[in-house]
Amino acid sequence: MNRTLVYAVFIATVLGLGLLIGYNNIPGEWYQALAKPAFNPPNWIFAPVWSILYVIIGFVGARLFLDHRRSAAMRLWLAQMILNFLWSPLFFGMQNVSSALIVIIALLIAVAGVIVASWNRDRVSTLLFLPYLAWVAFATVLNGSIFLMN
């Protein structure tokens, strides 16, 4: 299998699905009316940050698929993708802050799991997932704060 094609498919799929889910779950009046913490970033920051992260996530997914297909890291990568794509429909679509909080905590654990599981096998994937872990940790605190404030 052509490695370049695998990278292209993974990146395009993750980025495309992420953008599609984001487009179909745009923060609306409900979100604007919520009490938010002072550290809540402006809405415009989310799309570019997630776009960059989705490229990284796709790249890591391709690396794991090509070189460690049957590993715990690959299974955790798949789990975090499912959780990632579930969060926006729960939070913005269904306006279910508490369920979204449960999902994002599970996502945080899964992302950390990818990092731990890939540490000895693929240090590049581990290092590339660190900004993703930081962003999901921040998003978890943000989701938790919104839950507590509302």
Automatic annotation (TrEMBL):
TM regions (residue ranges): 5-24, 44-66, 73-92, 98-117, 129-149
A GO BP entry: tetrapyrrole metabolic process
Coiled coil: none
Keyword flag Glycoprotein: no
Main localization, broad class: membrane
Membrane protein topology class: Multi-pass membrane protein
Subcellular location: Membrane
Keywords: Membrane, Transmembrane, Transmembrane helix
Family: Belongs to the TspO/BZRP family.
UniProt name for this protein: Tryptophan-rich sensory protein
Record organism: Ensifer oleiphilus
Organismal lineage: Bacteria, Pseudomonadati, Pseudomonadota, Alphaproteobacteria, Hyphomicrobiales
